[in-house]
Amino acid sequence: MVSSLPSDALRDPHRVLQDFYQKSKDDGQDFSAKVASYFADIFKDALNEIPVMDTSTPPHIYKESSLVAFRAMIQDTLPPTEMYLSKLSSGACGGWGATEEASTTSALDYNDLKESSVMWAVSIPGRSVWSDLEGSEASASSHKSSRPHKYPLHAEPHVGMQLKIYDTSKAEALKSTDIHDFIGILTSESLQVADMDPAATPPLVPTLHVLFSQPLPPTIIPRVFPYAPSSSSVQDLRSELVSWLADEALGGDRFAAEWVLLCAMAKVQSRNPPILPPSLTLSRFPAPPPGSTNLPTLRHALSLLFPSVSAIPLSLETINTTQFAPESRDEDLVSGWLQLPKGSVCLITEGGLSEGGVTERGLRNLHATQEMMKDQVLNYVFPFSNFGFETDVSFVVLAEGRKSTFFNQTTVNVPFAPPSGEQLPPDALYKPADAIKLPDPDKLEAFRALVGGAMVGTAKVGEEAAEHIENEFVKERQAAKMTSDDLILRMLLARLVALSYHVPEVSVDIWNKARALELERKAREAAAAPGSKQ
């Protein structure tokens, strides 16, 4: 491999592509697949040298035919495929933004017509700044895509663009909400639209001719399980993490902080039998001060720990007038709040609710949310049918009352209860991100490695623990203190506790910790019930 290839490709990607084509065009192999392997190999150790496209460095700042990297989520796979001339009359390679001159009159060889897949991709919704491509300096930006209806988080700055993928085997495997690093040649081209009026002129949109792509894990940054910190035990690190989250975002409520972390790091373990992330309602959570538009500090704190955190600030206007589930309109997939990549944390806040009615559209939105919480499936709406897409999103609901106004089927309800005797200032739970006291960088990275590893880990029940659990269940059921549903929830919780300690097996000790958490949660619920003595 010639060491100058990365710099040559950065300077003139079309030239490097053409040189490779001339060397390999007659070997009988699929050229588009070879392109992906060739360019991936060129940048195997130099990926961070590729300029990054995001809201602080959007498409329009790059010159035509620049080589760029886009960390993105597939939003729409519906656009029609495009035919392109794979070999130009000059003998050069076609595709990847290289086209025949309009004046060319050579007879067309239909054997040279190939097909590329066209998709729409957007910035990863809720992506935390620290999880971006290395070398990207994200900053405050007002950049918005020319097609904002295709981004799940309404009105937030983002990049959206058309992808043209020439390796059709790779394209066929891509699904909505998949996240990848796409590396390709940037141009501005007409939007591919199905059934467009022949007299109409399609708009020009940023277009990335993909040379190669790399799938991303749900954690975006790869993590390992179990994790072994160098300076302190996992137990100490976990305790510090719970304390930090409680102090900075939850008024010192360590119990609530532990439940939030456990539910936020939960992921789908199995579809059959269903072992799905438990949804959490943090009830009795104070509404923001009058006139405040701040999100709860919890949202900012979670974004410092998890790679993708989205917030849905519920109001009657949001419920009744915005899109929650994606819907196909005129062959164009309109996004919704819930079109989130696997591995996301979704924080739903009810502090902005007021009196009023919910429309039919609002009821559909609420139903879609509840079903996604319960089954980890989101139905996309098409003209004559719905189609369910599997999801893997953790939900935390902040409710002002003793339960959620709309989502009564969340898996667990933890009443918020700051330490007794402490009077929280009105804005203590709604301070901005820059008011959070950060741990030192190494400690913060250790926190991220801890939760990230838990997200990708698995935990089984050990033999000794299984026997202990069975005996305990028999005793508690005979005493009418436990149902089979209670057992299922406690088993799920025990696995999460094990993962949070980075141990791959539920032991008797882990089981007892989970049991204590659940019993205290039930005690809090009883204390918060109407008529109880506070």
From TrEMBL:
GO CC list: nucleus
Localization in the cell: Nucleus
Highest taxon of source: Eukaryota
Name of the featured protein: Mini-chromosome maintenance replisome factor-domain-containing protein
InterPro entries, per the entry: MCM_complex-bd (IPR019140)
Pfam families: MCM_bind
One GO-annotated biological process of the protein: DNA-templated DNA replication
Main location: nucleus
Keyword entries, A-Z: Nucleus
GO molecular function, a single term: chromatin binding
